Structures are given as structure tokens and as C-alpha cells.
Amino acid sequence: MEPTDLNLTVTQREQCMVEAQVFGIYKHFSDLPSRAQTVMLELVRDKHIEYLTDGLQQLGSSFRVLDANRPWLCYWILHSLALLGEYVDDELENNAVDFLNRCQDPNGGYSGGPGQMPHLATTYAAVNALVTLGGQRSLSSINRDKLYTFLRRMKDPSGGFRMHEAGEIDVRACYTAISVASVLNILDQELVENVGNYILSCQTYEGGIAGEPGSEAHGGYTFCGLATMILIGQVHGLNITGLMNWVVFRQGVECGFQGRTNKLVDGCYSFWQGGVFSLIQRLRTVVNEQLVMMDDGKQDGSSRCTQIPVKSHASERKQDSEGTSSQYDESRWEQGGAPAGLPRSPDLINLSNIGLSFVEQHTENGPLFHSLALQQYILLCSQVLNGGFRDKPGKARDYYHTCYCLSGLSVCQYSCSKDLDSSPLPHALFGPYSNLVESVHPLYNIVLNRYHAAHDFFRGS
Amino acid sequence: MESEEGERIPLSQRPEWHDVTPVPQDDGPNPVVPIAYTDEFRETMDYFRAVYLADERSHRSLQLTSEAIRLNPGNYTVWHFRRLILETLGADLQKELDFVEDIAKDNSKNYQIWHHRRGLAEKLGTAATVTELEFTKKILSLDAKNYHAWSHRQWVLQALGGWEDELDYCHQLLKEDIFNNSAWNQRYFVITKSPLLGGLEAMRDSEVGYSIEAIVVNPENESPWRYLRGLFKDDPKSWIDDSRVSSLCLKILRAKSRCVFALSTLLELVCDGFRPSSEFKDAVVSLWNNSGSDSTDSSLAETICSVLGFLDPLRANYWTWRKSKLPAQTV
Ligand SMILES: [Zn+2]
Prior knowledge:
The structure holds two protein chains of two kinds.
Chain A: H1 10-31, H2 34-40, H3 45-57, H4 70-83, H5 90-103, H6 120-133, H7 136-140, H8 144-154, H9 171-183, H10 189-192, H11 195-200, H12 219-231, H13 240-248, H14 269-281, H15 284-299, H16 325-330, H17 354-360, H18 371-382, H19 399-413, E1 440-441, E2 446-447, H20 448-459
Antiparallel strand pairs in A: 1-2
Helix pairs in contact in A: 3-4, 4-6, 4-19, 6-9, 9-12, 12-14, 13-14, 14-19, 18-19
Chain B: H1 39-53, H2 59-71, H3 76-89, H4 93-104, H5 111-124, H6 129-142, H7 147-160, H8 166-176, H9 181-193, H10 199-217, H11 222-230, H12 236-241, H13 243-255, H14 260-271, H15 278-290, H16 300-311, H17 316-324
Helix pairs in contact in B: 1-2, 2-3, 4-5, 5-7, 6-7, 7-9, 8-9, 9-11, 10-11, 10-13, 13-14, 14-16, 15-16, 16-17
Zinc ion (ZN) binds at residues 266, 268, 391, 401 of chain A.
């Protein structure tokens, strides 16, 4: 395929141009002596930290278009710093807590900036930023009672959530609402009611999840939809094998992920799609259940409605070191034995424990995507040597892509680990071991140790 | 608002604003992520906060929201307040559509614009059907994969109607770019949801033909392969019984042996209960032998997984996993 071929369609022409650029970078890399290659693969930590802390302290006037997204800027920057193992100094931490508190609405929720209306996406960003900062002052600044009432006000009778008062309903809104409620330990049946059916109606014929029923399967919404379904204990309702078949094909010859079929590669999908793999890796029991159901369905000629007995959640989870424990663990948050597609009896599910038990289980299986290839894309194509990350070569760096490229890098580095809280083996990393970043909780995209501290803080209350 | 020389007149110097005291942003003494606002931006938002807090739903407030939106179309609070003003004033919504279109020219990927547009169309009802279909068509002519535009278009069709030409529109876009997955998705939406077409089962036969035609021209195009599979969603029996699907796989494998989608589709067929004849086995085994490897696989499904692991190394882990999870009747 030559880019000059006039018979190519727009999709093919754009794809050819990106491939030429990416392969040019890989060719240049492979021609280098190995010492130079190692240098090129280095995560330029100091530059990233400089770019991030600069942004925390001052942004230029062109950022006015993000003036209603300032908690997002806080989260993108603070989470990126946390992934790099950095703690901000006391003064900056206090300033961040104080500023986010000015975004907190007296009636609950966080807005895009002081004086604006509360919004679910910025509420998610603010809560994740405060959890990332951690500590008594930061965590206790969140008015959970008011936040709960805000979430209830955003709940639509259909089951979905609105982004803000009279705002749009979509899968993002569901995820941000459920994620925040789960982290803060205020998730209950009223919030969960019918969310599952809404997400199910967004899974498309391709296998991925769309933003609204009827729309196209998309990486960002697929992550949000899948994570939501896990957090509410209804993931068995999704067609997971279909979802896997869709997401596995989103990694392309450029080594990175695209967001949708026949779209261009983009660094931010390193997390949205890569994160989906991290979630699926911990869904082995559900996946196996669905495979058995499909198999049975064919043999007796009926559709998928075979009832599979699942271990009762009443049994205690064993922390033994035998390989059998992981499968046992999983049954903790995949409760019940109802047929796929139907919500299981709500009283069987302990909503407050799902997030924690999800990351405590061991995974026996490796990732189903190509982790080293993705790291290669992130480091050689998305990383900007002056600090920060970008969508693809030729684009400018920004804080959003910095956050999600680093999050994706983390997902890759820990994708072969049994446990998210132990250090991965060197062969799991592309480039020097000094590239190692912190692991994240894949349901919330919060650095794992900061999540644990917050979970302890909110558990008792 | 501009002076005769085209220069912006500060709000503080406009007589109609003399009674309003601007409200500065409460950023605190040491804010993080502070933005170096221009004087124009800061002043506009200070006046906006004043009318927003006073809930002043006036013509001058409406004008002010226009200015604020031009400076930052992502400010959902300004949009929300603008909707309240429009409602209170009983403003001309057709004129408002023009305003949105003007803003959308440079910001067609912004959530607020599309949410606003949907609200307007909801109020206008079927009077807006044609304008909304034309508006999305215009946006899609610039970017045929604009996610928001497609969502809006689907909403218009479902809420207001206008399905008559939609299948033709999909066809036209696919003729321009057969790789446009958004157009394939829209096509699927139309054949499953249009009240004029009789639903998926009624459309399946002709759509199988349509997607197979596209696949034969470009077997490396994933979109029609997924569409074809989607046509048999929840109906594995018809899927394995429609000989056109299996023949397609065989035809592609014989002509273009490295086609991952032909192999993976054949794998789905076999896993769903399709019983392959020796022709299929010969075609796949010859691929395997060409790769120079010895096979210890005892079934066709296993061999397909092995071949895919070889031809499609990026997904080698996935094909190994698939091989380990093959349904009992295939091994
Ligand atoms: Zn991106």
C-alpha cells in the first residue's frame, strides 16, 4: 500500500501515514547500537516530574478550554506523579486539598472549578485526586453524606446516571458515579438499581461497549462499562468472550491500541483497552462459566440458560498459597448462581467488598494482549523526551495522555504478576528495570497503595 | 461585543452592564492548576458568575453566555444556564440552532454542544427532523467517524423519525470508505431498529450478501467481518447453517491464505458447532505445513489456533488461550 495511491479510502490513507511514521521510529531504533537503544527506552522520569509539577503550579492561557475540568487536571497530574512514585510536598498537598474543596458543592459533588455546577466526571476526578494525595486532611475533606445525595439526584429513573443536573446520560456517567460510591464505601442498592441493564444495552454486536445504546463499540466506554459491571457484582451479564474477541483485535501493527475498529492508534487507549485486559485477567471464573454455558447450550440445542452452581459467598476466602485459592477467591464477588443476563439476588452481594477482593486475588494466567509491544509504543512513540506523553508521533503532549500512557505502562508492567502488590520480574518490562512504575487498582485507576489506605479510612465509617 | 474598529469593548465599559458587580472566582490564596486567564476571559467569567448567582435570565445574560461559550465551549454550567434563559425568554430555538452550528464548526467533539443540540431538537419535535439529519450529515462529511454526531443522529431517528433514506446514506458512506466502521455500525443500527425494514431476521439474508461482497473486495477489512458475525447474534444455528459464511472462509483462505479474519471466523463457526468437510481441513492443514511446523494437533479447531498463533503473533497469547478452551465437541 503506497500512501500516494489515489484509490485508497480516507481510513486507509490516514492509517498508512501513521504506520509510516511509527515504523520509521522503530526502524531508527533497531538500527541503533544496543547501548543507544537502552537509552532510548528509558522512561525520562525527571523530565516527566518537571512537566507535571510545573502544570500543578501554573498553566498557560490556552488551558482556558479546560477551565471546567480543573479537578481532572489535578487527577491527571497527581495520579501521574503517584505512578512515578513521587509524593508532592506538604505545601502543594495542602494547596491541592484546599483548591479541590473550593470545587466541592455545598449540596454534594465536585464541579469543574470554583462556582460551577457539580458534575459526575469532575467528582470522580476530584475523589481520585484526593485519594491519591491520601492522609487524614485530604480524605476527610470529602463530604460523603452530601456526595451520596448528589449521586442519588443524578440517578435517572431508567437506571443510568446524568452527568449533571439535566445533563446527558451515558456509560461514563454510570462508571464515574459507581466508582466514586465504591471507593468511598457509600455504594448501595438504590444506586445500583438498573445500572446493569443500562450497561448491557450498550454492548454492541462487535463485542465492545458503546457510550449509549446503538452507538459504536469504543475503548473508553468498554473500560467504563466493564468496570461498572464488576463493581456492582453483575459482570456475568455481559458477553465477556465476545468482549475479549473485540478488545484483543484493538492492538494493531503499530503495537499500541486503537479505540474503535479501523481507527488510528492512540496512546491513551494503552490504559482504556489495556485496563480491560487487566480486569478480564481477574474474571477467570466468569469467563469459564460462560464458556461452559455456551458449550452446554450447543449440546442440548437450547440457548444459554444453563444454571451453573457457584460457591456460596458465605464460605470464607482462604489465603493459602496453593494454586487453588485464586479460583476460590473469585467466587467472592461473582456471587450467586442465577442465569447469565439476570441480576442476581441483591442481598447476596456485599457491595462494599467488591473492590478490595478484586485486587486481592491471585492471577495464574498471563495477559491476553502483547504487553511488550504496547510498552514499545508507549516509550518510543508516545513518550516526549522533554517530559509528558502524547497520543501519537506528530501530536503535542498533554496531561490527559500523560496520565493514561503512564497508567497503561503500569498495566503492562504488572500484567504477568500474580499479585499487583509484588514487584514484577525484569522480563515483564520493556527497557531498563528503572522504568518500573507503581501498580494501579484496575477498577478505579488509583495507585494501589493509595487505594488501600483510603479503603481502610472509609471502611469503618 | 465589538467596537467599530472590531476591538472588544470590556464589559466594565459597556453602559448596559454598569449596574452589575462582577464576582471574581474563589480560587483561594494558592490554587493548584491555576490558569493564566486573559483579561477578556477573566472579566467575562466574572460577569457571568454575577448573573448566574443572581439567576438573572435576561437578554443581556443570554448575550453574555454566548461570549463565555466562545471562550470555553466546554463550560457545562454556562450551557446549562443558557438553557434556563432560553426557556424563560421563550427564545427562538431555530436561531439557537444556528448559534450551536457556529460553535460546532471548531468544536465538533465537545459533549456540551451535542447535549444542547439534543435538548433543542427535543423541544422542536418533528419540525427539527430534517435540520438535524442535515446538520449531522454536514459534520460527518468533515469527519465521518465523529462519535457524537452519530449518537445524535441515532437519537434523532429514534425520537423524531426520518428513517426513509438512512440505509441509502449508510451505503453512500460505505461506498466512499468501506473501512468506515461507524458507517457499518449505523447500518447495523438501521437494520435492527428501523420500523420500515422488519428487523434483523427480515434483513439478514440480503445483509449477508452485502457484507460478503465487501469482504471479498477487502478481506483484511475487519468491519464487514464483524458485521457479518453480528447478523447472527444470538442465533448460532443459522450462523453455522448458512453455507455462504463457511464458503466465504474457504474461498478467502484459498485465495489469500494469510487472512486472519477468515481463519478466526472459521474458528468461530467450528466452535459454534459447524462440522467442516475435508476441504476445510485440507485448506488449513496446508497453511500449517507451509509454515514449516510439525503439527501435533488432533482437531481442526486446534490447528486453526496454531496457525493463527503463527500468523498473528501480536495475539499469540489469545490464540493459545483459545486453544486451551475449545468446546468439547471440537477436540
Ligand atoms: Zn487519546
